Amino acid sequence: MHQVKNSKRSHTAKARSEIGWRETVGLPELQIQRIGAKIDTGARTSALHAIDLEPFRKNGEQWLSFNVQLGAASKSVHCSALVIDQRAIKNTGGIPELRYVIRTALIIGQRNWHIELSLSDRSQMEFELILGRSAIQGRNLTIDPGRSYLAGEPEYLSKLPPPKAELSQTIVRESRTGNGEEE
Predict the structure, then answer these.
(1) C-alpha–C-alpha distance, residues 99 and 16, integer Å
(2) Phi/psi of residue 50, each to 5°?
(3) How large is the average pLDDT for residues 5-9?
């Protein structure tokens, strides 16, 4: 006779979480508390809508300054991040384009981890953020393609370490107002 393994889960294993095909997530190291994301298992790489990309050097490393427009372009977040790579990534038309890639923290519901994000002008797309397979692989998630917003709002009371000032510098501005205010 063969033995049947105990089906009880280890108390150290994370329980499987269900998420929808779209979720509201946070990118705290970029000071983005809420951003709409499409969960796209057809895409390998995640992509964040970023414009005004300006590479610069800091402490001998390549960094990138960029703006992320949130919502209907009423808010713009100015970010700086360490560049971890430049890769040829296929756009929605299947044409490879060279993109900068950064690493940052993601919060989805009550869970958080670091992901790689390619930066691209997604102004013609519905979602500012696409979460591809590599961002969610191995995270014990089930995606329900018929439902949305199952994870709830990003939970900031998690054990994610606070953002380091030297890893990202972010300013939130009201765009198209001409007042030049910074928060």
Answers:
(1) 32
(2) -140, 140
(3) 40
Q: How far is CA 171 from CA 79, 94, 127, 138, in A?
A: 7, 34, 21, 33
Residue 165 belongs to some domain of the structure:
no
Query: What value does the mean pLDDT take over residues 144-157?
Result: 91
Helix extents (H) in the chain: 133-136
Q: Give the torsion through C-alpha atoms of 26, 32, 37, 101, to 10 deg.
A: -100
115 assigned to some structural domain = yes
- How many structural domains comprise the chain? 1
173 falls within a domain: no
Query: Does 70 fall in a domain?
Result: yes
Q: What digits encode the pLDDT tens for the residues 93-143?
A: 889 999 999 999 999 999 999 999 999 998 888 899 999 999 999 999 999
- Give every CB contact of residue 117 below 8 A, 6+ residues apart in sequence: 46, 47, 48, 101, 102, 103, 104, 129
Q: Does the pLDDT value for residue 78 go beyond 50?
A: yes
Domain that includes residue 135, residue range: 17-152
- Rounded to whole angstroms, the Cα distance separating 68 from 80 reads 11
State how far the Cα of 174 lies from the Cα of 21, in Å rounded to an integer.
29
Q: What CATH number has the domain bearing residue 21?
A: 2.40.70.10
- CA–CA separation, 181 and 85 (whole Å): 33
d(C-alpha 2, C-alpha 116), whole Å: 43
